[in-house]
Amino acid sequence: MAEAASQDLLLAAAFVSDAQYNRNIPFKTSPEAVRLYYLYNHWIMRTATYFFIFLNLSLAVFEEPAVYPLPFLVTSVVEVLCLVVFFGRLTHFAKVTLRNVFWKDTKNICIMVAILLSLTDLAIYGVLRMYDVRSIRWSRIVRPIFLINFAESRQIRRAFRSIRNTLPEITYVFLLFMFSLLMFSLMALKLFGERNLQTAEGLPYFKNYLEIVFDLYVLVTTANSPDVMMPAFDFSSWYALFFIAFVIVNTYIFMSLFLAVVYNNYKKHLKNEIRKLAYMKHCKMIEAFNILKEEEGAQFVVREAQWKQLVKLVAPDISNSHRELLLRISDDEQKGFIDKKSFVQLADLLNIQVITLKIRSHPLGQWMPGVYKSAVSRFLRSMVRHRGFVWTYDVIILINAIFIALDEETPYISYAEWVFLALYIIEILLKVYTYEPRAFFGKNQFWNWFDTLIIFAALTATILNTTLKSTTKYNSQQILDIVFILRVLRLIRIVDSIQRFRVIMNTLINIVPTMLTFGGLTLVVYCVFAIIGMELFHGKIQFFPANSNAPHSLECGNAALKDSLFARAKYCKNNFNNFASSFIVLMELTVVNQWHVFANGFANVTVQPAKLYFIAFHIVMVIIIVNIFVSFILEAFFVEYSLEKSEVETAIEQKIQELGMGVQEDELQDEHLLDNMESAEHDLEGEGGTKPQSKGLVFKIASKPSFPLFYLIFCARLSSVASL
Amino acid sequence: MAEAASQDLLLAAAFVSDAQYNRNIPFKTSPEAVRLYYLYNHWIMRTATYFFIFLNLSLAVFEEPAVYPLPFLVTSVVEVLCLVVFFGRLTHFAKVTLRNVFWKDTKNICIMVAILLSLTDLAIYGVLRMYDVRSIRWSRIVRPIFLINFAESRQIRRAFRSIRNTLPEITYVFLLFMFSLLMFSLMALKLFGERNLQTAEGLPYFKNYLEIVFDLYVLVTTANSPDVMMPAFDFSSWYALFFIAFVIVNTYIFMSLFLAVVYNNYKKHLKNEIRKLAYMKHCKMIEAFNILKEEEGAQFVVREAQWKQLVKLVAPDISNSHRELLLRISDDEQKGFIDKKSFVQLADLLNIQVITLKIRSHPLGQWMPGVYKSAVSRFLRSMVRHRGFVWTYDVIILINAIFIALDEETPYISYAEWVFLALYIIEILLKVYTYEPRAFFGKNQFWNWFDTLIIFAALTATILNTTLKSTTKYNSQQILDIVFILRVLRLIRIVDSIQRFRVIMNTLINIVPTMLTFGGLTLVVYCVFAIIGMELFHGKIQFFPANSNAPHSLECGNAALKDSLFARAKYCKNNFNNFASSFIVLMELTVVNQWHVFANGFANVTVQPAKLYFIAFHIVMVIIIVNIFVSFILEAFFVEYSLEKSEVETAIEQKIQELGMGVQEDELQDEHLLDNMESAEHDLEGEGGTKPQSKGLVFKIASKPSFPLFYLIFCARLSSVASL
After folding, report:
1. Mean pLDDT throughout A538-557?
2. What percent of chain B is modeled with pLDDT above 70?
3. Distance between CA atoms of A612 and B315, rounded to whole angstroms?
4. Least CA distance to A193: which residue of chain B?
5. Mapping DSSP to helix (H, G, I), strand (E, B) and coil, where does residue A450 land?
6. Which candidate from B187, B252, B592 shows the least CB-CB separation from A485?
7. Residue from A68, A170, A187, A486 to probe the interface with B (highest B Cβ count within 10 Å)
8. Cβ contacts (< 8 Å) between A251 and chain B: which residues?
9. Less CB within 10 Å around the terminal CB: N or C of chain A?
10. Which InterPro entries match (chains A, B) (predicted)?
11. Which residues does residue B701 pair with via DSSP β-bridges, in sequence order?
């Protein structure tokens, strides 16, 4: 019986944690499946999956054409290993979930097909290789599928789904844009084609319709402005009007239109997704409730003891007091049980970060109370807390900045570096002495962590460099570079002293997690294009150091580039000869400028239709992904600007206040002041002894949702909408 | 007594029309002032003011350095004339408005100061000129003040006010951005400064801190990507990481942040403005009501007769039936009077475009009923109405496109041009024959107007060209160019046949009026920068035709440009030698690409700090104005996408339906079908005879607000908010 109850609890906990983390895995309810399910979601398993996904992707670095070449045998063994791990993970998932659900899910099918394709391609390539026949490793472009389709990378998949849903609308705007482009090209052909004008390179100007279309497409991206206009403009000033009209219509209006369409659709689809998610969450919580419910009077409820065990299972790392708080919120009237409505809220309650502030005295105060509470120590601590302390260090940072800008060679200045390092270390020590160390290195104290890491890294690197210098009389350039960068990064701290800047910086820091999703998206697009690019352009363009005397070293080792803009601009190192170079080229193409020089250069060394590769990349990356990125940043900022606490958050906060364990934000000058370097909004204060319930313990809602930001807020808001 | 009543009506009508057009002129209520007020708002007076504002601005074209030089005497007389007109307008305004209000308004003071400054400068310049001393006409940069500050250009002033309100927030982000730029520059100096690297032009690379800051600022605008990175990248691939980090932080994140801040603030301030406006409107309507009110039972009301006279005064050009409709809405229960609440709505009611569709038979049907109603005529008309007719012409347009792309010289093709022209003219005639001409050329029939104008312009130009050719054996190039453009523009019509495209095009057309505001904004910024630019760079760079043998003709007539990128790219015609050239250069700077080549080129021929001019232009134009433009397009599209009819519109529509004069949108196949080329949304149908009230008359709310778009919608929505 006890065993059965515990089984029920495990199953309910699985449902609740699914709801909490917005997972949508329809698992089987047998005890064995639930155990497998826990194993499947264990952080080690998840991290391992990610590790193998990235290992598989990074194989491109070691395979031909390689940055760091490894024998084919090694890379193929690693690839097979990765595929086996993926297959294992999939089998594991199949055992957890229902059979018919598993086979209906396209992402599972995708993974299986991708594994099969990769194996087949590997086998064919291996066999052909034995007979010394070179073939294309075409299966490499399916590798990003693993990153998209494993259940762990839900965010990226959602982004891809949004893109897919946005495509029809974008397509219409794109067709209209193409129509406008073709019309303007036709006009250009008629207006300039028969004038026998020449470009700055002496080539015929606007003679061929397709070339005009390409040139004007480049003008839309502004990459060849004003060069493309100059010959016509030199001929007659009035022709500038044609190009002005073109730029207004195509660059300004159509490109804004793309952003508007992408933004609008992305927002719409995201809302739908989140609505669906909230509904799914609700269903999961109801299932959990139904497992644990017991009859109490006219209604079904969950007993307090059950509930506590459930929370312990779902969130083992939250403190007892936090759990007690959640219980008080769920069981408002202390009846000893939780009703359905309060129970369903649990997933959202668990998601809200409540900072438990233990009002502890400083450890030194406990170990050496005599010394710590002496007049000198008190003076020291009040000095560190004083606003002047911050200002003094701001001045020091500014002086440091001037010293960095000055020449390195003067011995006084390199000694000064040691002085600054010492000053910064003293600052950190003083702060740790004054504030409670565990509070100083708290979870949300980004800047404290940042400072400490930077200073100690700089210290280590400087010592290492000095040691090397004194023993081998030789500066290691890599270490010196790192020292330089760390030294400059230290200056960022000054931003933290100005309230307005800190607000902007905090917003930027809050967006980081969501930007990682776009990092993933970009990675997928880059991988696919890099692999295609390497197949198309590998080895066609070579980079030779400045003093090389290889044939055609000035033309990037390819006679076809003679007199081309590509060779003249010395772009030879921008090539697709290995994975890393390809990424850098794609990065430059994302920035857009000069992409037509790349397109023309690579088309010259292969075939003219190769330009299509560059146009395709521009459409996918710049018109779609970058616009989504911009939409995302816009939306994230609007949410940050208009951040209101959700209903659930308000409920918690109310309860915290009711229990007398809240943070009084107005009593700032107190002895227990934790950190006066934080903004007013962050100012924490604990007045433990006045209220009976609080045992040196205060709670505070984390002022900004630190995880997927607006996603969470939406969830919390929509959960009430979706409560069916 | 009648005279007094009429005075009251005039005064009330002035208040109502102020409310209707969102004017905020606190005029005096004396009879004379009201008469002057009417004169002040007369369209001729307003148009004349605009004419003189633009005349004053366009003087820059004729003054030294001139595009079309005119003697100093002529331009100065014209300028004095303009200033006199402005002064007259201001005096007129002073007579209309209250004395203390007039002197408190900064815009009046601004205009007066601007007039004084202009006169002083003109006098000094004239006197110095007599003694052959050349001085600077510095007052020319105050001329755009007239465009901003005359009450007529309210939209532009509002945009400027929004910008001013957005500035503090932008400044903080900008400072943070500058801090990031300076930090990265410091790192770049430390990392690359001592490597003795060289740029592609053989210049030292990243040696001087200020130059690094400039180069990296240019990289933020992406204009020198990837050139600025290549030397470091060639030295070591790892250094690419520095530039990638730089681009992600500064180009992607900070530039999106600018857009976010501008968009957010612009939206916020616009909402505030509109809230204020709605309040002001309400006050004006209350004042009008208080003038006309009479006691009726327990409440004050306005009698129907008074109301009708008022509407006739305010909107003399609306039809009797439209006025009747408005009365029915205001006096819902036909009590013979209008209460306060309904009266206040009047300003909004007048703003809503109600299309009065008179169901008239075709004039030919009245003149020659026998012919027009014959079987042949009926067949012809049903043929034109058939979907196949549209398709046939779509095919013709496509064939036309192919003919245009083919070579002009073949005689058959130039004959074909006549065939196409004839076909298009036949189409228009057939349509006018089938549909009622006044409906065909209705106010909202944009495409019909477009077609007709294009075709007739093409016909005129082609005939003119042929005449010239046959009489003088010589093609006029200008006319030929216009013929080419018109010929291609005809092809746009094909867009109109595809539903999805038409929706996008209609949205674009709806944004045009609001884009004009940004045209005004841009004009002001361009004028100021063009005038400064001409003072700084006039004559420094000369353009010589290709075969010129002037000294330094390859270096744009300036030895300082030898070997510069500017001269090598043949940018000599991009100079500040006259007003028109300056505008084109500023346009190219707005597009951003290659702006650093301009900045370096112009700095070389003058002094290095001249680069600040280009940076200032970039900040003002690209970071602020273009972002506002993008925000505006985004907002406009979101409003278009989520367009719901406002409350007032719904009320009118309800009333139209109640009165049985609505348009039945489902009966499409009717004989009276007006225009089956319009979208389903636009399909108009009038079934006159079935309901007793409708005397061959139907109403329809214009499906999109055609004037300041989202502004109106906001107004209508907020008027209920602001009802105090």
Report:
1. 83
2. 84
3. 58
4. B407
5. helix
6. B187
7. A187
8. 591
9. N
10. Ion_trans_dom (IPR005821), Volt_channel_dom_sf (IPR027359)
11. B354
Residue A614, C-beta contacts closer than 8 angstroms, at least 6 positions apart: A589, A595, A598, A599, A602
Are the C-beta atoms of B150 and B53 separated by less than 8 Å?
A: yes
The closest CB to that of B641, out of A240, A247, A264, belongs to A264
What mean pLDDT is reported for chain A? Answer: 80
Within 10 A of A416 (CB to CB), how many other CB atoms are there? 16
pLDDT bin (cut points 50, 70, 90) of residue A646 is low
| Ramachandran bin of B24, using left for φ above 0, alpha for ψ from -120 to 50, beta for the remaining angles | beta
Chain B residues closer than 8 Å to A481 by CB: 191
CA B302 to each of CA A319, A490, A588, B338: distance values in angstroms, whole numbers, following the listed order: 71, 73, 70, 5
Listed in sequence order, the DSSP H helices in A491-645 are 493-496, 499-537, 565-568, 579-591, 595-605, 611-617, 627-641
Ramachandran category for residue A570: left, alpha or beta (phi over 0 → left; psi -120 to 50 → alpha) = left
Contact B237 A189 (CB under 8 A): no
Please report where in the chains the tokens 């490894």 appear, as a residue. A70
Q: Which of A173, A259, A264 sits opposite B504 (nearest CB)?
A: A173
* Record: contact B593-A593, CB cut-off 8 A: yes
Distance CA A686, CA A695 (A): 11
Q: What is the pLDDT of residue A673?
A: 34
Nearest to B594 among A190, A226, A401 (CB): A226
What is the three-class DSSP state of A151?
coil
CB contact under 8 A, A226 and B500: no
| Ranges in chain B, pLDDT < 50 | 1-2, 644-645, 663-696, 703-724
d(CA B530, CA B603): 16
The predicted-structure confidence for A248-292, as pLDDT tens digits, reads as follows 999 988 988 899 888 888 788 877 877 888 888 889 889 889 888
Rounded CA-CA distance A166/B17 in Å is: 45
- A43-62 vs A579-591: helix axis angle to the nearest 10? 100
* Residues sharing a CB contact under 8 Å with residue A442, sequence separation 6 or more, in sequence order: A355, A448
Whole-angstrom Cα distance, residue A635 to residue B22? 32
Q: What is the mean pLDDT of residues A636-652?
A: 64
Which of B114, B122, B96, B127 is CA-nearest to residue B11? B96
Other C-beta atoms within 10 Å of A367: how many? Answer: 9
At CA B290, angle to CA B284 and CA B295, rounded to 5?
Answer: 150
Identify from B593, B598, B622, B640 which residue to disrupt to test chain A contact, counting A C-beta atoms within 10 A and taking the largest count. Answer: B593
Q: Does residue A177 contact residue A204 with C-beta atoms inside 8 Å?
A: no
Separation of alpha carbons B456 and A452, rounded Å = 76
Q: What does the pLDDT look like over A368-427, one tens digit per residue?
A: 877 777 888 888 888 888 888 888 988 998 888 888 877 666 777 778 888 888 999 999
pLDDT at A312 (0 to 100)? 86
Chain A residues in contact with B222 (beta carbon < 8 A): 591-593
Q: Is the peptide bond before A65 cis (omega within 30 degrees of 0)?
A: yes
Find the residue in B nearest to A198 (Cα): B546
Chain A CB contacts of B591 under 8 Å are: 222, 225-226, 247, 251
Within 8 A of A499 by CB-CB distance, chain B residues are none
Q: CB–CB of A634 and B190 under 8 A? A: no
Eight-class DSSP state of A4: H
Report the predicted TM-score, pTM, of the whole model to 2 decimal places. 0.84
Is the bond leading into A705 cis (omega within 30 degrees of zero)? no
* Inter-residue contact A282 to A183 (CB < 8 Å): no
Residues linked to residue B700 through DSSP beta bridges, in sequence order: B355
Distance from CA of A12 to the nearest CA of B (A): 42
